[in-house]
Amino acid sequence: MQTILFHSTIFGPIHSRRLGTSLGINLSPSDGKVCSFDCVYCEAGLNAQGPGRSGLPTVNDVATQLEERLKTMRDAGDRLDVITFSGNGEPTLNPHFPEIIDEVIRLRDKYYPDVKISVLSNSTRLTDKRVVEALRRVDNNILKLDSAINPTMRVIDRPNSPSFNSQDVIDQIAAFGPQCIVQTMLLRGEVDGKPIDNTTPEEIDALIEAYKRIGPRQVMIYSLDRKTPIETLTKIPRSEMEAIAQRIREAGLEVSVS
């Protein structure tokens, strides 16, 4: 069974397909997964593995460990492009997320002032004013939208909340406008014996309308790169990804493909 990827609060640096040389921050447990989605493609495995016993890292945990790593890297002359909130679940679920953002900004400014701060979020906490305000303080506020068609989104992302839906989250993301980047995983395959495909003309049309409604700084589309917990999923060929990207560009949006 595929399980969590990261066994520490600070990890890397690693090479990110989309962001460059990235030092990661995991605000989930180091021995379990805590997420408001249970995505069929999640590289950290499914939520059924449980939250572990280590608990969520505190503000002091993050600040102490991050400062130690940044100081070591700076003294060694190591390159760094970005500090990225990612890890074994949804970072904004950590109750200290806003305070942690402030500490990371402070330490970034002290050690690597030119480095960007990115947050990869699944967009489920955009009803929380404190989370929204914290996301506005980072350089790259990267928000997930895997389908603008609700039944498809619920099959791919499997949100914990029965009331979470695509239209509401599109409206919530749109409140950021150019202060956000929208990230979409494109895939097809089979889930529980049923076909799933968010690359059909209907799906792409709906996504493009959602992107236009949001008006993000950039759209990031990507496909599978590592092993997934549901093994009946298929990576979208690069040529097809580029064709989809061209349709998005023709709608007047900046898009990257990875």
Strand order of the largest sheet: 1-2-3-4-5-6-9-11
Mean pLDDT: 96
Strand content: 15-25%
Stretches where pLDDT is under 50 for at least 5 consecutive residues are none
Number of DSSP E strands: 11
**N-end to C-end Cα span:** 26 Å
Silhouette: globular
Largest sheet: 8 strands, mixed
SSE-based structural type: alpha/beta
Radius of gyration: 18 Å
The helical percent reads 25-40%
Number of contiguous helices: 7
Pattern of helices and strands: EEHEHEHEHHEEEHEEHE
Describe this structure in words.
33% of the residues lie in helices and 21% in strands. The chain is built from seven helices and eleven strands. Strands 1-2-3-4-5-6-9-11 form an eight-stranded mixed sheet. It has a three-stranded antiparallel sheet with strand order 8-7-10, with helices on one face. The longest helix is centred in the N-terminal third of the chain and has 18 residues. It starts with 9 loop residues before the first strand and ends with a strand. The mean pLDDT is 96.
